[in-house]
TrEMBL record:
GO terms for cellular component: cytosol. One of its GO terms (biological process) is NAD+ biosynthetic process via the salvage pathway. Catalyzes the first step in the biosynthesis of NAD from nicotinic acid, the ATP-dependent synthesis of beta-nicotinate D-ribonucleotide from nicotinate and 5-phospho-D-ribose 1-phosphate. Keywords: Glycosyltransferase, Ligase, Phosphoprotein, Pyridine nucleotide biosynthesis, Transferase. Residues 20-142 form the Nicotinate phosphoribosyltransferase N-terminal domain. This is Nicotinate phosphoribosyltransferase. Its EC number is 6.3.4.21. NCBIfam families: NAPRTase_put, PRK09243.1-5. Pathway: Cofactor biosynthesis; NAD(+) biosynthesis; nicotinate D-ribonucleotide from nicotinate: step 1/1. InterPro entries: Aldolase_TIM, N/Namide_PRibTrfase, NAPRTase_N, Nic_PRibTrfase-Fam, Nic_PRibTrfase_pncB, Nicotinate_pribotase-like_C. SUPFAM superfamilies: Nicotinate/Quinolinate PRTase C-terminal domain-like, Nicotinate/Quinolinate PRTase N-terminal domain-like. Residues 163-358 form the Nicotinate/nicotinamide phosphoribosyltransferase domain.
Length: 445
């Protein structure tokens, strides 16, 4: 069963301050900068990934909407100030009391694809007001982008079949709604998590549990039929019955005996899913239940989903692999200072280099819509020539003078951004096998 969907964002924190979702050293750096007078220097920080997770060909920007909500609640009330006062001087505590971000933020639209070096977020303001945002920015972008990137691969593997996010019990309880949101952003159809439905408007869906079937066992044996009958009485004939608690063949037969041939669906949660799906489909068709859907679940990832593409599966329930990024639980983004008072600055540490200066980015595409290259260039320079390709600027205004840009995209609109991006990739970019990024990122001098 599925709840009604909405396509508007909901303020995530309900008034809860996000100011202490940070690292202590950000506030101690702030204290030092306030003391030596450098806190007011005008700076640009950029969030980007030096590389994609091993073997991945693209990433999906996720969490932008959540980030803007978190920024609105980045305030130091008395409880937060009391926590900081234990290690900060009174002058810094007083500065935090009046903290409001008053700068500008540009970024890739949520749902946009990104590649190594893409300047996903550009944050401009005083050093003091920008530096304290590092951890909250990275924690949201890294988590949500990792989940969205994994989910997008699963969407491709599913080939248009229904996908339900079911990972709440395999991740932190506070991360579960964000994971569901990121999966929906990338193209999943629904989530089992009700907080994600309430907070973000993600459609909710659910089937049934083995416990419900076992509940109807008694001293005289198993009463699977009684459990099925009870579920149908409560939820209607369109419900999905879990048929593998005991014997799948007997379970399917019992389900149709109880529900009739108009039963909405059956779910298989164990065993060789491909073999079982074929057997169940043949059995359902033989019983006259040709329209009854088959839902499979049980430690699925993009590879097992792809392996089931030729099987008669109508929907997939995905949990553990999704909420852990399918082997890449973080997007690996960093937040680096790239400009101070108009002068480029860059980190030179081995394997951790950054490129100085505030940047812009163009994505080039053929007339067919297939993207071919991303060009990153200096925001202070001239827009590069595009050699006849169609070019699109990637960074869009997100915050101006501390205020979020009006007419923020809805989550549904951001889903469309992901879908269009995946269609624009070169065909090899959609492969699940390990490979290089789908397009190259060039840096104009």
């Amino acid at each position: 069963m599925t709840s009604a969907a909405t396509d508007t964002y909901h303020v995530e924190s309900n008034g809860f301050s996000t100011a202490l979702l940070t690292d202590r050293y950000e506030l101690t750096m702030l204290a030092a900068a306030l003391a030596d007078g450098s806190a007011r220097r005008r700076c640009t920080f950029e969030a980007f990934a030096r590389r994609l997770p091993n073997g991945r060909r693209y990433g999906v920007v996720g969490g932008t909407g959540r980030l803007l909500d978190a920024l609105a609640h980045f305030r130091f009330g008395e409880p937060e100030l009391a926590a900081a006062a234990g290690f900060l001087d009174p002058a810094t505590v007083d500065w935090l009391r009046g903290y409001r971000f008053t700068g500008d933020i540009d970024g890739y639209a949520e749902g946009e694809l990104y590649f190594p070096g893409s300047p996903v977020l550009s944050v401009r303001g005083s050093f003091a007001e920008c530096v304290v945002l590092e951890t909250v920015i990275l924690s949201i972008l890294n988590h949500d982008s990792a989940i969205a990137s994994a989910a997008a691969r699963m969407v491709t593997a599913a080939g248009g079949r229904r996908l339900i996010e079911m990972g709440s019990r395999r991740t932190h309880e506070l991360a579960a709604p964000a994971s569901a949101r990121a999966a929906y952003l990338a193209g999943f159809d629904a989530t089992s998590n009700l907080e994600a439905a309430r907070r973000f408007g993600v459609p909710s869906a659910g089937t049934s549990a083995h416990a419900f079937t076992l509940l109807h066992s008694g001293a005289d044996g198993q009463h699977e039929a009684e459990a099925f009958r009870s579920q149908i009485a409560a939820l209607g004939i369109g419900t999905t019955l879990l048929v593998d608690t005991f014997d799948i063949t007997r379970g399917v037969a019992t389900a149709i005996e109880v529900a009739g041939t108009d039963l909405g669906g059956v779910r298989i949660d164990s065993g060789d899913l491909g073999v079982l799906a074929r057997q169940v489909r043949e059995q359902l068709d033989g019983l006259g239940a040709a329209k009854t859907r088959i839902v499979v679940s049980g430690d699925l990832d993009e590879y097992s989903i792809a392996a089931l593409r030729a099987e008669p599966v109508d929907a997939y329930g995905v949990g553990t692999s999704l909420v852990t990024g399918s082997g890449a639980p973080t997007a690996g983004m960093v937040y680096k200072l790239v400009e101070v008072d108009g002068l480029p600055v860059a980190k030179r540490s081995s394997h951790k280099q950054s490129r100085g200066g505030t940047k812009r980015a163009l994505r080039l595409a053929r007339r067919t819509g297939t993207i071919v290259e991303e060009i990153v260039y200096s925001a202070a320079g001239t827009r590069p020539a595009t050699a006849g390709f169609e070019a699109r600027e990637l960074l869009v205004p997100l915050v101006r003078d501390g205020v979020a840009a009006p007419q923020r995209p809805t989550l549904v609109e951001s889903r469309d951004v992901v879908a269009r991006g995946l269609v624009s990739l070169p065909w090899e970019g959609l492969k699940l096998s390990a490979g290089e990024p789908a397009i190259t990122t060039s840096f104009a001098d």
